[in-house]
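A quick aside before the break. I want you to see a complete sequence-to-structure record at least once, exactly as it would be stored in a machine-readable document. Don't worry about memorizing anything.
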Amino acid sequence: MKFNQKNVFISPKATIGKNVRIGDNTVIYDNVEIGDNTTICNDCVIGEPLNTYYTDENYENPTLKIGENSLIRSHCILYAGSSFGKNLSCGHRVTIREFVTTGEHFSIGTLCDIQGYVTFGEYCRLHSNVHIGQQSTIGNFVFIYPYVVFTNDPHPPSSICKGPTIGDYTQIAVHSVILPMVEVGKNCLIGANATVNKNFADDLVIVGSPAKAICAVSEIKSKEKEGVMHYPWMYNFERGMPWEGIGYLEWKNKNLGITTNS
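That is the input. The structure line, written in tokens, reads:
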């Protein structure tokens, strides 16, 4: 473990892996588990206690797990009770409340706010300034672009708290609002400024306020490759993806145990 000696506090009940680097003014609370080769930058709070910490004299911090090879940039606050797969990447001033679960290679941009009790799959990407309400469920390889908001109360104020459900590979463009309990299928494209207030099936382009499906994603032509359809996007984009260098189809077949002829 390596860290600068300026105002760093690490609970004796925390577990710190090998080659972990911790910056100045960082606090690590009880029952935090940090994987090997992780970097936590300056002014972070890791394992922030839940509200009951302030009223329950018998309070015990739920375990916070951070997978190996993670990078948490300055001024991030990660609450207790969450679990992050390896290769977590946080921008600056990120807040992630309690009981969030993510797969591996979760990337979250600067000034994002996840309000707790949210599930993400593998390789999800949140760009800057995204807000995710409680009880939302996001699949694998879902990218969420700046200023998107997931809501969770259908008629506020109420006691209902149920966020949207988003299928694998779906892309959600800037300034979209996804309303409570909405279910969006796999491999959809939600256009900029959409207000999604009802369920949608797989493979659709969804635009407008209120949103409607205008065509199949397979009808969108690539602006990079003349005469090629861009969607499903996995066949045309690979930077940072597990199929980088081999192609999506080869990767998919390998995962399914299918052998392709060379």
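Two observations worth writing down. The chain has a mean pLDDT of 95. The helical segments are 248-255. We'll return to this after the break.
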